[in-house]
Specification:
249 residues; 6-stranded mixed sheet; two-stranded antiparallel ribbon; 9 helices; 35% helix
């Protein structure tokens, strides 16, 4: 499942850059989920129906401008896999979802303070924090006050996704699933059908399975290069570490 987070408030249908790019690999047999984060500035060849010159190099975030299919195909080519489903969110989506869930408990690797550019200034404690929607979004957006910048921001986004998943699969939430889905439907775009969701909910309620959620993030080297969507200038990019990429694949 490709989880795409776009950098806007308001209607999630608006076309924009995809600043959050997480692939959730779900194994329903072993009850394991692997979250793979690819930083927004990763320098990748673009593939998709709206890319005139497929294979042209660009930042991953710019793939979102050409549509969800381009982001999915681009990441599929990068990781040599087929991505079957997508969930598309924006800033407003995350705030609403977390608030509807009654907040989430997020495990932070570091203590830091979010800046005003994150949308909400707050102190984050190392370890467990309880966030409402606005706080969860600020935690996801902050990078300037993190020693590892965008790489750590990606890990923080994984921590929020992990917290949301744990809350959603709790029995109390699953029993309210239909009501919750109706409340968040305006905030989320996805190609998972209601029948598929209902089957997953029934299976989880019947089995009570305990899920293991693991995370990994692609790393790389900073640089500047020409991009397909802005060919007349050099932009900041991240060249992916090939050994790390091979390890993830």
């Amino acid at each position: 499942v490709y989880i795409s987070g776009i950098d806007t408030y308001g209607e999630v249908s608006e076309t924009s850059r995809s600043d959050v790019n997480i692939i959730a690999v779900v194994n329903p047999t072993t009850h394991q989920i692997l979250l793979i984060t690819t930083p927004r500035d990763t320098y990748v060849p673009l593939y998709g129906p709206d890319v005139r010159d497929e294979g042209s190099m660009d930042k991953l975030t710019h793939a979102g401008v050409y549509g969800i299919d381009t982001s999915m195909e681009t990441l599929g080519e990068l990781y040599e896999t087929d991505i079957n489903y997508y969930v598309r969110l924006n800033f407003t989506s995350l705030i609403d979802i977390v608030d509807i869930l009654g907040g989430i408990d997020v495990d932070s690797e570091f203590e830091f303070t979010t800046g005003s550019e994150s949308g909400h200034v707050m102190d984050v404690e190392e370890g467990m924090n309880h966030f409402n929607g606005e706080q969860a979004l600020a935690f996801c957006r902050e990078r300037h006050n993190l020693a590892d910048g965008d790489n750590q921001r990606g890990k923080n986004q994984q921590a929020v996704i992990t917290a949301v998943l744990k809350k959603v699969i709790s029995p109390s939430m699953l029993l309210r699933a239909t009501s919750l889905m109706n409340q968040v439907s305006k905030d989320v775009e996805m190609n998972v059908t209601q029948d598929q969701l209902n089957a997953l909910i029934r299976n989880q309620l019947g089995s009570g399975a305990k899920w293991t959620i693991q995370s990994v993030a692609l790393t790389g080297e900073d640089g500047r290069d020409r991009c397909y969507s802005a060919s007349d200038q050099l932009l900041y990019v991240m060249y992916p570490d090939e050994d790390e990429l091979d390890h993830i694949i």
